[in-house]
């Protein structure tokens, strides 16, 4: 009879210990996974900012280079050079990353920063259109 009581106490102690370990491990694991995603998002955002800055720089180099051609030769040669790059090297211009779009993207990113508020704001209630 004493063996059964000791075994039951032992099982209860083991269950309690495992519960305590899981109580500490699960939130720590969740915090680790979420933190890693946030760090990866920040790293991707920095890489995007760097790429946009490089595109801006190269477009400005192209603009100044075309201006120099216009002064010396009377024409910019921008389309001629872009066609040579497309046909000879296999790179093509999508037209999606123009200077104005990059400026708009950068201004949208600065506007979308999280703003700390003093008190919580209640979301608008959903209303039916019908």
Structure description:
The protein has helices at 2-73, 78-89, 99-111. With 130 residues, the chain is mainly alpha-helical. It has one domain. This is ABC transmembrane type-1 domain-containing protein.
Write the SSE topology:
Elements (H helix, E strand, L loop, with lengths): L1 H72 L4 H12 L9 H13 L19
Instruction: Output the radius of gyration.
Output: 31 Å
- Main beta sheet: none
When the domains are counted, the total is 1
Please report which band the strand proportion falls in: under 5%, 5-15%, 15-25%, 25-35%, 35-45% or over 45%. under 5%
Q: What spatial form do the alpha-carbon principal axes imply? A: rod-shaped
Helix/strand/pairing category: mainly alpha
On the 0-100 scale, what is the average pLDDT? Answer: 82
Low-confidence stretches: none
Key phrases:
3 helices, rod-shaped, 130 residues, mainly alpha
Compact description:
The chain is an all-alpha fold. It is built from three helices and no strands.
């Amino acid at each position: 009879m004493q063996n059964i009581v000791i075994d039951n106490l032992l099982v209860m102690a083991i269950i309690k210990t495992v519960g305590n370990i899981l109580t500490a491990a699960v939130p720590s694991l969740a915090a680790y996974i979420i933190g890693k995603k946030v760090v990866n998002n920040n790293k991707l955002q920095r890489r995007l900012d760097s790429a946009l800055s490089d595109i801006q720089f190269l477009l400005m180099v192209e603009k100044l280079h075309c201006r120099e051609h216009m002064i010396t030769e009377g024409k910019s040669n921008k389309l001629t050079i872009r066609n040579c790059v497309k046909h000879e090297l296999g790179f093509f211009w999508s037209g999606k990353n123009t200077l104005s779009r990059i400026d708009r993207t950068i201004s949208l990113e600065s506007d979308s920063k999280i703003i700390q508020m003093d008190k919580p704001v209640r979301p608008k209630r959903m209303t039916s259109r019908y």
